[in-house]
Write a structure and sequence with these properties.
The chain is 36% helix and 22% strand. By secondary structure, it is an alpha/beta fold. It is globular, with a radius of gyration of 22 Å. This is Phosphomannomutase/phosphoglucomutase.
């Protein structure tokens, strides 16, 4: 039997094409997706990677063979696929490997209304069917083959976003956007059309080989060009999107990065102004400032594990208005609880353009603490290293431990979280404190323990 354990992850399918998977397997995934979801119709989209059209088309063919009508929306961002799933009330599949290198591709799948499909919500069943069929062949079916039709939803997606955030009355802003040759180059021009924004476009040519830099703005080296252009041109703000344009990173007028926690707090405050008293989700490694500002704005913060499946589950369970992660994923009730970096970007532009000061002044009130950023350590035994750190802090006066996601150690004036990578022999450390000196001290102590 074919073993797909290397490409079927916790939340999606992802691997090297054609070494780990190909169009034949994509067709089987399409058939399995229809069987597991029971869908009579689905929507399918893809990014700009060279392998994406073939894989997407094969998936659509497999789905149609099992009786589902397929709407292909073609080139799109991941949040545009989520829009189509929510707008049409259909399960969906997005072909992308997000920020991974060009030889990778993958599938992000959802049920109707953009509800996530993960290991516990159908992905394990899909994998089992594909593994079986890869060995024995696709079984016969009595279903009448479905149709495959094309439909452009980019304009409707842009209209939906602009209806959620009104930018018509803001002062004119000069905005540099680095699309990283990813799908932001497809969506930004349409979303920004007619708004009081002077767009300076960096790397908007769709090119899944990523000739300029990786489409991963979380890595500081990939926003250097954006920072330089903002400084050179005197722009008001810089935005960087990842490869499938579902995440958005922000730099201020000086080219300095704005933390995703600060963006989470800013957007939460704006959303709570529309719906006071609502719940806001944040993961366990966002800044202390996020729950503080949510409470100050009259909302109820709820802390959860890292990862979009957990966030979306909590959004649905609590009826939350908004959710944010340190990785620059932002989730909105008005967007079917799905993540959309573009909507977060519009909120930031509206806030900036609605007052006269620079972005650095605007976000300063949301950025209250010093932080280490994420520090990765290669370890031979994740469990043993985690246990050594846990033992060192257990019972220490004034310190509490919790294991909602990895290990979080909290004191009066600092905290840190230590989490194992799901895919690599790494431990990820994040430290926050009331001042930089304390961050350095706590960071060095924790690293000394886990690297010993």
């Amino acid at each position: 039997m074919t073993d797909l354990s290397q490409i079927v992850k916790a939340y999606d399918v992802r691997g090297v094409v054609p070494d780990q998977w190909d169009e034949h397997l994509a067709e089987l995934f399409g058939a399995a997706f229809v069987q597991v979801t029971g869908a009579e119709a689905i929507v399918v989209g893809h990014d700009m990677r060279p392998s994406s059209p073939g894989l997407s088309g094969s998936f659509a063919r497999g789905a149609a063979k099992r009786g589902a009508d397929v709407t292909e929306i073609g080139l799109c961002s991941t949040d545009q696929l989520y829009f189509a799933s929510g707008h049409f009330g259909l399960p969906g599949a997005m072909f992308t490997a997000s920020h991974n290198p060009a030889q990778y591709n993958g599938i992000k799948m959802c049920r109707a209304g953009a509800a996530p499909v993960g290991q516990d919500t159908g992905l394990a069943d899909i994998r089992a069917r594909v593994e079986s069929w890869a060995a024995s062949g696709l079984p016969a079916t009595d279903a009448t083959p479905g149709t495959v039709t094309r439909r452009d939803v980019l304009g409707a997606y842009a209209d939906h976003l602009r209806n959620l955030v009104d930018l018509r009355g803001i002062r004119p802003l000069k905005v540099v956007v680095d699309a990283g040759n990813g799908m932001g180059g497809h969506t930004v021009p349409t979303v920004f059309e007619g708004l009081p924004l002077e767009l300076d476009a960096l790397y908007f040519e769709l090119d899944g080989t990523f000739p300029h830099h990786e489409a991963n703005p979380l890595d500081p080296k990939n926003i250097v060009d954006l920072q330089a252009r903002v400084r050179e041109t005197g722009a008001d703000i810089g935005l960087a999107f990842d490869g499938d344009a579902d995440r958005c990173f922000v730099v201020d007028e000086a080219g300095d990065p704005v933390s995703p926690s600060a963006i989470t707090a800013l957007v939460a405050e704006r959303e709570l102004a529309k719906d006071p008293g609502s719940t806001v989700i944040h993961n366990c490694i966002t800044s202390w400032s996020v729950p503080e500002i949510v409470r100050e704005a009259g909302g109820t913060p709820v802390r959860t594990r890292v990862g979009h499946s957990f966030i979306k589950e909590e959004m649905a369970r609590t009826g939350a208005l908004f959710g944010g992660e340190h990785s620059a994923h932002y989730y909105f009730r008005d967007f079917w609880n799905a993540d959309t970096g573009m909507l977060a970007a519009l909120h930031v532009l509206a806030a900036l353009g609605g007052q006269d000061g620079p972005l650095s002044d605007l976000v300063s009130r949301y950025d209250r603490y010093a932080a280490s950023g994420e520090i990765n350590s290669v370890v031979d035994d994740q469990a043993a290293s985690m246990a050594a750190v846990r033992e060192a802090y257990a019972g220490r006066e004034g310190v509490t431990l919790d294991e909602l996601d990895g290990l979080t150690v909290t004191a009066d004036d600092w905290w840190f979280n230590l989490r194992p990578s799901n895919t690599e022999p790494l431990l990820r450390l994040n430290v926050e404190a009331r001042d930089a000196a304390t961050v350095s001290r706590v960071r060095d102590e924790a690293l000394g323990l886990l690297r010993a």
